[in-house]
């Protein structure tokens, strides 16, 4: 209680300009903090929306790299060019890098199991593709034909598995997308309500502050009018602040209490004549 009184007395000792500046500064800081928090929440929701279909994009890239690798094998078998061989090794390395992101652990999740199968089949496919290339380079016709037949079959298996996994992920991501989109819509509504509430609170605070300034001035003006009419038996407003309003109120009270009534007679006459 004592600390609260000290804080209150400290606030009331401030000037009007300082009070207004503090009030507007606190209002601006409050609105800034609220906007930052709301922006952060909405930004997180937008990131989640972007991440929803990132898995489908990665699978599409994996499929494209697999197709390019298989095309390089076919081109080398037909042309035996160094460019196709170079492209083959580059795509194989890129495909292996992508496989590092695919699950290789034993789990119970259906999509994770399918990922593990894709990774294992892809490793077998790459071994058969390399065997086909090496047999072609060694001019072992029978061997590279047999290896290529196995490699083509494994290629179709991997493609089919990636296609199934892509469909499963798309269905799951569609459900997640709907949930996140609904949450984002609710977040927009909540943010609007919070901003309106904060604006109302700030308006109420400003009105209270303005009232603490104007109400004593209005009462002081009424007392001054009473004195001008010749009524010196008045009660001055009880204002405990030490700002400009308090200084004027205390000075007026001191002037009323320390000056004899007849000293105000010329003022009263002037006021009466001006009204006539």
TrEMBL record:
Enzyme class, first EC level, given as a word: transferase
Domain of life: Bacteria
Keyword ATP-binding found: yes
MF (Gene Ontology): ATP binding; phosphorelay sensor kinase activity
Cell compartment(s), UniProt: Cell membrane
Pfam families given in the database record: HAMP
Broad class of the protein's primary localization: membrane
Catalytic activity from the UniProt record: ATP + protein L-histidine = ADP + protein N-phospho-L-histidine
Transmembrane region(s): 20-39, 189-210
Topological category with respect to the lipid bilayer: Multi-pass membrane protein
All copies of domain HAMP, residue ranges: 211-258
Keywords: ATP-binding, Cell membrane, Coiled coil, Kinase, Membrane, Nucleotide-binding, Phosphoprotein, Transferase, Transmembrane, Transmembrane helix, Two-component regulatory system
Coiled-coil residue spans: 85-131
Catalytic activity, EC: 2.7.13.3
CC terms in the record's Gene Ontology section: plasma membrane
PANTHER family reported for this sequence: SENSOR HISTIDINE KINASE CPXA
Name by which UniProt lists this protein: histidine kinase
Species, as recorded: Candidatus Choladousia intestinavium
